[in-house]
Amino acid sequence: xxxxxxxxxxxxxxxxxxxxxxxxxxxxxxxxxxxxxxxxxxxxxxxxxxxxxxxxxxxxxxxxxxxxxxxxxxxxxxxxxxxxxxxxxxxxxxxxxxxxxxxxxxxxxxxxxxxxxxxxxxxxxxxxxxxxxxxxxxxxxxxxxxxxxxxxxxxxxxxxxxxxxxxxxxxxxxxxxxxxxxxxxxxxxxxxxxxxxxxxxxxxxxxxxxxxxxxxxxxxxxxxxxxxxxxxxxxxxxxxxxxxxxxxxxxxxxxxxxxxxxxxxxxxxxxxxxxxxxxxxxxxxxxxxxxxxxxxxxxxxxxxxxxxxxxxxxxxxxxxxxxxxxxxxxxxxxxxxxxxxxxxxxxxxxxxxxxxxxxxxxxxxxxxxxxxxxxxxxxxxxxxxxxxxxxxxxxxxxxxxxxxxxxx
Length: 408
Hints:
- By secondary structure, the chain is mainly β.
- It has three domains: 3-124, CATH 2.40.50.140; 142-231, CATH 2.40.50.320; 235-385, CATH 2.40.50.320.
- The chain contains five helices and 20 strands.
- Strands 2-3-4-7-6 form a five-stranded mixed barrel. A five-stranded mixed barrel has the order 8-9-10-14-13. Strands 15-16-17-20-19 form a five-stranded mixed β-barrel.
- β3 (55-59) and β4 form a beta hairpin.
- The protein is globular and about 75 Å long.
- The two termini are 29 Å apart.
């Protein structure tokens, strides 16, 4: 478990620890106004970057580093593995703190929020972080929904999302947002849930990708959100113009705009090569859907694929994929997502000039240049059969909201 990437999950962990009143925001220092004549008490959550005597450098999820001076009378406690009750915490000596530990520091803070004289340090164990992160991830899987925003009514707190399926149908769901709903937005050049920042209903726009966690109505038409995360993720169909593996960049010729798009590839970027037989099956289904033809279990296999209802074999990673019939293509496109993500991975250096690509990128692509979130090569049959039909959104973008988009 990468503790650095799990800091955002501590919001939920801290919410469970009521004895010390943790703040609701993470990744930054939060100041609590005091009565006149008293120092401002600040709280900051993050990981220890360095230790020099009683001086700690704390790295929050976002924002500037915080200088923490641990006071001689400071209380230092470590939560026990698997525990979220501060009453079970055990005293810890200053010299027991280690670089990489996740902590919450509390004490008088500077006006600029860059330093704290810590009177209390709570250390969160790796196992506690892992346990809560896994719990949250499972809840997103069970109670998650995702789609593209088609309408926003800020006056009523209603956001309508469109959930696509492989066969071209779209289900409209109204997501209801209240004052208690936690709203976050992906950073412009990141698809990491951990890097998402606190946001507002007013910042949600049509065509944003939205994922929500909450409760669905019996008919599936309404969704009461406890938490949502939104962002803009441009979709590109094009061909490889050049690859610079040493610089981890790829230049793509957008087939629609005819413009060249320079994109970065990071360790978080997902690159896949769609096998030829899978691409042919997807092309067949998309073409039939575009023509208005019915798509069922028997129609979901091209002449080259396995018999209807059969497995697609190793080429599709053992998933039933398209040939699994209509059940694999329910609203939300989860069958397509699983099939695409089961495709073999490909290295940037293995892509060649002229290769057809479908790419989901970060919002930065619209301005100065973005980062590849997901890239699929081998899509030429699909693009030829149904241009612009192979939308890659909404898909899981990492972090906590990685549940089945089409979860019913």
